[in-house]
């Protein structure tokens, strides 16, 4: 939502062009909600969601750890004040020289999902801890993740045993139940699978200790989502069901759920038009689109709340599109968006819940449009 602090910033600063404003007070509240919901679970913020230094510094001060996908993100977390033991290299696809650099920087926790990736770590980060990512079905998520990451449980068992036999510490397993996961029970299915991996390796003399519960915690867009506490209850219940009294070390990797609700994009209406006199649909063109930071509207997976100066007036369906000379730069057409009929060229609008995956998805200068400006307050 648009907080009073964000409204005041926009009124006083009047920033030019489309821009993202993130309210750190909301980030702090979200972190505290996760910490309260899962008090025995370490929080590893997914840096890729929004790597703004101010956000990383705040989270480091609050005690967060960090899930990183590259050496650059590792360096950002270190610069924000996190020690290397609070950083995991969670990308399962890493160059060997990047593994070596991470190890040189002190990182000792790495994700894998193949024997070949284990071999790289054996050579470049001897003695490191590894966890193996296991595939999940993603049922219940608005944006189920693809098969790009992870392996089936049987392969995970072989990978972790291979890591153990080759001098690494086989720490445990990880999974991701899908982005914007609204089913609190999704973790139950994944934890049942994880417990099976633990049991099989225990029979082989290898004691796993870690379950990385991944991300998937949602932000409220146009649909209601369960509160963080409901996820905490469901996850803890599933842990007790599948692990009994021998609970493993657990970590979570919230990204969207940590910063999504903290950000608002200010944008401007560039054009309102129709394709024919008989066309019932208006086209509303904004000065921001898929290439300017709203890439998650792809396939209309994420439908952001939009506030206008004419809210409360009569509305009608319209197509919303971005400003670039690319026919793919259309945000909502398959399921038209209802906006006020009074909307005019030059009106400023607010696109809410845009704190995650916007600045990081924005192009550098496609069509000459500047990258999405970001302010953290």
In the CATH hierarchy, what is the class of the largest domain? Alpha Beta
Largest pleated sheet: 8 strands, mixed
| Relative helix content | 25-40%
Q: Tally the beta strands.
A: 18
CATH architectural type of the largest domain: Alpha-Beta Barrel
Features:
2 domains; alpha/beta; eight-stranded parallel barrel; 377 residues; TIM Barrel; eight-stranded mixed β-sheet; Lyase, Ornithine Decarboxylase, Chain A, domain 1; 24% strand; 18 strands
Explained architecture:
With 377 residues, the protein is of the alpha/beta class. The protein folds into two domains: 24-258, Alpha-Beta Barrel (TIM Barrel); 261-376, Lyase, Ornithine Decarboxylase, Chain A, domain 1 (Beta Barrel). The chain is built from ten helices and 18 strands. It has helices at residues 4-13, 24-37, 53-62, 71-79, 96-104, 115-124, 153-165, 186-203, 228-243, 256-259; strands at residues 19-22, 42-46, 65-68, 87-89, 109-112, 129-133, 141-143, 169-174, 179-181, 210-212, 249-252, 263-273, 282-286, 306-307, 315-321, 330-340, 348-352, 373-376. The strands form three sheets. Strands 1, 12, 13, 14, 15, 16, 17 and 18 form an eight-stranded mixed sheet that branches. Strands 2-3-4-5-6-8-10-11 form an eight-stranded parallel barrel, surrounded by five helices. α5 crosses α6 (115-124). The two termini are 15 Å apart. The relative contact order is 0.16. InterPro entries: Ala_racemase/Decarboxylase_C, De-COase2_N, De-COase2_pyr-phos_BS, Orn/DAP/Arg_de-COase, Orn_de-COase, PLP-binding_barrel. GO terms for molecular function: ornithine decarboxylase activity. Pathway: Amine and polyamine biosynthesis; putrescine biosynthesis via L-ornithine pathway; putrescine from L-ornithine: step 1/1.
């Amino acid at each position: 939502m648009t907080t009073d602090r964000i409204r005041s910033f926009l009124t006083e600063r009047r920033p030019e062009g489309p821009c993202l404003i993130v309210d750190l007070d909301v980030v702090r509240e979200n972190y505290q909600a996760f910490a309260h919901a899962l008090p025995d679970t370490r929080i590893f913020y997914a840096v890729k969601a929004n790597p703004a230094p101010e956000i990383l510094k705040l989270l480091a001060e609050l005690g967060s750890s960090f899930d990183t996908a590259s050496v650059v993100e590792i360096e950002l977390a270190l610069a924000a004040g996190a020690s290397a033991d609070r950083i995991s290299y969670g990308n399962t696809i890493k160059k060997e020289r990047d593994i070596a650099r991470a190890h040189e920087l002190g990182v000792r926790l790495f994700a894998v999902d193949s024997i070949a990736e284990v071999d790289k770590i054996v050579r470049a980060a001897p003695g490191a801890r590894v966890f193996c990512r296991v595939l999940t079905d993603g049922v219940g998520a608005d944006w189920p993740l693809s098969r790009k990451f992870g392996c089936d449980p049987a392969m995970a068992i072989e990978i972790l045993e291979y890591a153990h036999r080759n001098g690494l510490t086989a720490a445990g397993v990880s999974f991701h139940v899908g982005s914007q996961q609204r089913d609190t029970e999704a973790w139950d299915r994944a934890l049942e699978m994880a417990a099976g991996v633990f049991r099989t390796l225990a029979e082989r003399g290898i004691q796993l200790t870690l379950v990385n519960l991944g991300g998937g915690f949602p932000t409220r867009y146009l649909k209601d989502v369960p509160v963080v506490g409901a996820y905490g209850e469901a996850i803890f219940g599933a842990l007790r069901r599948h692990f009994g009294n021998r609970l493993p070390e657990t970590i979570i990797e919230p990204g969207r759920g940590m910063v999504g609700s903290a950000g608002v994009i200010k944008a401007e209406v560039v054009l309102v038009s129709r394709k024919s006199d008989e066309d019932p649909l208006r086209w509303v063109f904004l000065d921001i689109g898929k290439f300017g930071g709203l890439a998650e509207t792809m396939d209309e997976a994420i439908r952001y709340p939009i506030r206008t100066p004419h809210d409360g007036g009569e509305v009608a369906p319209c197509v919303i599109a971005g400003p670039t000379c690319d026919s793919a730069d259309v945000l909502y057409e398959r399921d038209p968006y209802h906006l006020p009929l009074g909307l005019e060229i030059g009106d400023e609008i607010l696109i809410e819940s845009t704190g995650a995956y916007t600045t990081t998805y924005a192009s550098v200068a496609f069509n000459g449009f500047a990258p999405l400006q970001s302010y953290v307050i």
